[in-house]
Design a protein that fits this description.
30% helix
Length: 141
């Protein structure tokens, strides 16, 4: 069984650390830093795609979802794994029993990029895959 614990980008090298995997380096995979979005584009994307999300300091997207219980909150987090891995872009998560706070920013670019909106939209859809997505709590993070 092979379990990956995380992936980091350091000096253009992909470093994978996993249980029983050890440390592997792959210098052949260069990762381009995505382009920053303009303020106008960010506002339009929020209005059109993520009206309940917030922008923090012009650099991060934020949303907190509330579920009925801890099990549903963790199931939501598990549904985020595939889209985050597919985008190679991972949200900062805070779990407090039945609440999950997400914070997205493209740190390498120094702000918000298309990757942040792509993962935020996937998160929104993952809140309720069989129905209407949940809405962010208005004053929580």
């Amino acid at each position: 069984m092979r379990i990956r614990l995380g992936r980091w980008v350091t000096s253009g090298l992909m470093i994978g650390v996993g249980l029983g995997v050890g440390l592997g380096l792959n210098a052949s995979r260069a990762i381009a830093v995505p382009e920053l979005l303009s303020g106008d584009v960010i506002l339009a994307r929020l209005r059109d795609d993520l009206p309940d999300w917030r922008v923090i300091n012009g650099q991060s997207l934020a949303c907190t979802y509330q579920f009925d219980n801890f099990v549903e909150a963790i199931a939501f987090v598990n549904r985020l794994v595939e889209p985050a891995e597919a985008a190679a872009h991972h949200p900062d998560l805070t779990i407090n029993y039945n609440r999950v706070a997400l914070l997205l920013s493209t740190h390498d670019a120094g702000g918000l990029t298309e990757l942040d909106f792509r993962v935020a939209q996937a998160a929104r859809a993952a809140t309720n895959p069989d129905g209407q997505p949940l809405t962010c709590l208005s004053n929580a993070l």
